[in-house]
Structure formats: structure tokens, C-alpha cells
Amino acid sequence: MTEIVLFHHAQGQTEGFIGFADELRAAGHTVHTPDYFDGRTFTSVEEAVGYRDEVGREELMRRAGAAVDGLPAEVLWMGMSLGAVFAQLEAQTRPGALGAVFLYGVLPPEALGSTWPAGLPAQVHGMVDDPWIDWDAEVAPFAEASGAEVFRYPGTRHLFGEVGNVDYDSDAAGLLRERVLAFASRVG
């Protein structure tokens, strides 16, 4: 099966995040879950964003990169929200990536200082009216540059695929999992 690196969102490695990783493992995939928050988790997005800002994006990027040093090049990079940025950076800059899955956000490739690798498959998942996703300024340019599959789910929630999160939506989460598992099997 596929080797996957899954970067957590700004609330850290919550039970719902670990549960998602475990579902990927149960499907036969090897999943690495780097923790660049030193074990800290947050119950609210506001607290999480405060911690992100306190530590600083550059330091978090350094931690995330250090956490994946030594892993094979041939992995599927996956990230949730804040973690999508780290997954995108690795997929764009490390030769050999199998693909990328971005849950709850993505940036235009040039925002990370490089272009999207030709032929590298990707998926983007998010809710249509998620206030944390800019579909026009971020997702659309990424999709145009990468040819990514873009899945827009009805609703306003952010971390809708995470069991136990206040944003959880069982119908959308079920469809998201189905699509992500199919993609992981296909690229592996």
C-alpha cells in the first residue's frame, strides 16, 4: 500500500486527527504523523491560532521539515488546514512525491516559492462556505497550476472530517474518507 505523511491542523494531534490516521492505517497504508506542536492540543481554533502565532510560522515550518527528514521520497503528502501548507511545501519541493491531499485549504504554488511539479496528482477538500478557505484567491490558482481534483462540500464548517470536532459533518466526512482512500490506493 501507500506510505503517507499526514500533517495535523492548528489544534494539534487531537483524537479526531489520530482517528483519521488510524483509518488510513486500517486500510493498509503506512502513516507517519509528525507532531510539530510538541504534544500540545487545543479545543478551540482561536487558542490554536494563538499558539501558531506565538511560535511563528517559520519555526513551525522548520519543525515540520525536521520531523520528516529521513523519510523516503516516495510518499503521499497529506495535511489538514495549517498542516496542508506543510504537506504542500514538501510535495512541491521534494522530488519523488506520489501525490498530495489537502484537507481544508491550500495555497497557490508560488506562495511557497516554487511551481507545482508537472504530473503530480493532488486533491483539495473543503466546505463551500468555510470562512478559512479562499476558493478564488487560493484554491482556484492551485487547481489551475496543478490540475488537482477539487471537492467542495456543502456547508460552512472547517474541520468537518474530524470525528469529535465541533465542525464534524458525518455525511461530508464519509464522502471525504471515501475519496481520500481511493486516491491513496490509486497513487500507491
Task: Describe the overall structure.
The protein is of the alpha/beta class and 188 residues long. It contains six helices and six strands. The chain has helices spanning 15-26, 45-55, 57-68, 82-93, 135-146, 170-187, and strands spanning 3-7, 30-32, 76-80, 99-103, 122-127, 149-153. Strands 2-1-3-4-5-6 form a six-stranded parallel beta sheet, with helices on both faces. Strand 5, helix 5 and strand 6 form a beta-alpha-beta unit. It is globular and about 35 Å long. The relative contact order is 0.17. The mean pLDDT is 96.
Number of strands: 6
Distance between the termini: 6 Å
**Any idea what the radius of gyration is?**
15 Å
Helix content: 40-55%
**How is the biggest beta sheet arranged?**
6 strands, parallel
Question: How do you describe this structure in short?
Answer:
By secondary structure, the protein is α/β, with parallel strands linked by helices. The protein has helices spanning 15-26, 45-55, 57-68, 82-93, 135-146, 170-187; strands at residues 3-7, 30-32, 76-80, 99-103, 122-127, 149-153. Strands 2-1-3-4-5-6 form a six-stranded parallel sheet, with helices on both faces.
